[in-house]
Specification:
Oligomer: single chain
Strand content: under 5%
Shape: globular
Number of strands: 2
Helix content: over 70%
Strand order of the largest sheet: 1-2
């Protein structure tokens, strides 16, 4: 496989963006999290939004790959390797966002020496680490040339599927077990996370396969893309159903806290993201993909996949920030905002009655850098592993041609 000029240019651009992101992160380490838009009122921002987003994106690849062995879906076996590569890169990107959000990353070793087993955050660290290990082992066996490697792939796939579901459930419990947050405290938060992870992960996998095909790195037939698009439509429907259940449960009692939450989602600060997810992420792609004839048109499938990925990102935004707008401090003067402005304020100016957040240039540049690093890693891994994995097949095909010609 020869390296094209487009590949070289893309790699250089992504590397430059990665370096810019590293520089912004170093600036953040030197000056503290005060350079971000986060505060006491909104303690999680763009980093955790992207963490949730990429944890979900990693699901589609691993579930498709493991389903090929667990459920004996032959069509999925063809794309199992690129699916696992994509899953591995996405979970690494998600982990990087957690470390960046810590601020004082030099104290990360305390997680090992003094963990809190009762904390869902600690559960998430454990399950994400397990998820990453499963991905790496899966990848090692899939690319191995040893005779018993395929049998080991079948064994690992039995563990990969439940671990993929577990990692998104535990991430959801970080939010779903927060009794003080009206928009998070829900028993179906885990199913909602799993459903949105499935549709966003599948959508990204379809886009990645199309990109690899266009780049000449990996071939995928149109029938398989249509098959994945049909599965994507089913996942979108399940996701929409669960969101509808949650909204009805919050709205029907007409409790003050629930109605304030819905007001922000429907017409307030996070309305743009809520309706963006409903229309762009659910309605439009489902209407397109529910018809079999549309699933045969690659352009429509790719457009729908883009809508799903954008819609799920919007979902992560409104899900995270809507519950930060109205802090649960009724009767109190508010909460110390913790912002840079409040640090130099006096009297009642230090108090905040509502949460406010906007990402700063530091956060934006860091996010661009991390995503660029993930894209660069996917390009390089795909070129190396997919190119080498298909070489034996090509050689075997060439030998068959020679043998047939000799016999003739």
């Amino acid at each position: 496989m020869k390296t094209s000029n487009a590949f070289k240019v893309s790699a250089v651009v992504l590397a430059a963006l990665t370096i810019a992101g590293v520089a912004a992160w170093i600036y953040q380490l030197m000056n503290g999290l005060g350079v971000t838009g986060m505060s006491n009122g909104t303690s999680w921002g763009l980093y955790i939004t992207c963490f949730m987003f990429f944890v979900g994106l990693s699901a589609g690849g691993l579930i498709v790959a493991s389903s090929a062995s667990v459920f004996h879906v032959k069509e999925y076996k063809k794309v199992a390797l690129p699916a696992v590569i994509l899953s591995t890169v996405c979970i690494c990107v998600a982990g990087m966002f957690v470390l960046i959000d810590l601020g004082g990353i030099q104290r990360v070793w305390r997680i090992v020496v003094s963990p809190n087993p009762a904390s869902p955050l600690f559960w998430d660290i454990c399950v994400i680490t397990l998820y990453l290990v499963v991905n790496i082992v899966y990848l090692a066996f899939m690319t191995s040339k040893k005779p018993a490697a395929q049998d080991r792939v079948a064994v690992v796939s039995r563990f990969a599927l439940p671990v993929a579901i577990l990692v998104h459930s535990v991430t959801a419990w970080i939010f779903g077990l927060e009794i003080a947050k009206e928009g998070w405290y829900s028993a179906i938060m885990a199913p909602i996370f799993v459903a949105s992870a499935l549709d966003s992960g599948l959508a990204l996998l379809i886009l990645a396969l199309a990109g690899l095909k266009k780049a000449g790195v990996f071939e995928v037939d149109k029938k398989l893309i249509a098959n994945l698009a049909g599965l994507l439509a089913t996942c979108i429907a399940i996701d929409a159903f669960l969101i509808g259940c949650e909204l009805l449960t919050v709205a029907y009692p007409q409790a003050a806290g629930g109605m304030a939450l819905l007001g922000e989602m429907f017409t307030g600060s996070t309305a743009l993201f809520f309706w963006g997810e409903i229309i762009i992420g659910l309605l439009i792609p489902f209407v397109i993909l529910v018809f079999a004839k549309n699933r045969q048109k690659t352009g429509l499938v790719l457009g729908s996949s883009v809508c799903v990925v954008v819609g799920v990102f919007f979902k992560r935004v409104w899900l995270l920030f809507t519950s930060f707008i109205h802090p649960n401090v009724y009767g109190a003067p508010g909460i110390p905002s913790g912002s840079s402005g409040a640090a130099h304020a006096a009297g009642t100016d230090i108090w905040a009655l509502t949460g406010a957040y906007a990402p700063t240039w530091v956060e934006i540049v860091v996010v661009i850098g991390v995503v660029s690093l993930g894209a660069l890693a996917f390009m390089l891994l795909s070129k190396k592993l997919l190119g080498s994995s298909r070489q034996p097949d090509e050689d075997a095909g060439a030998k068959d041609v020679v043998a047939s010609a000799s016999a003739a």
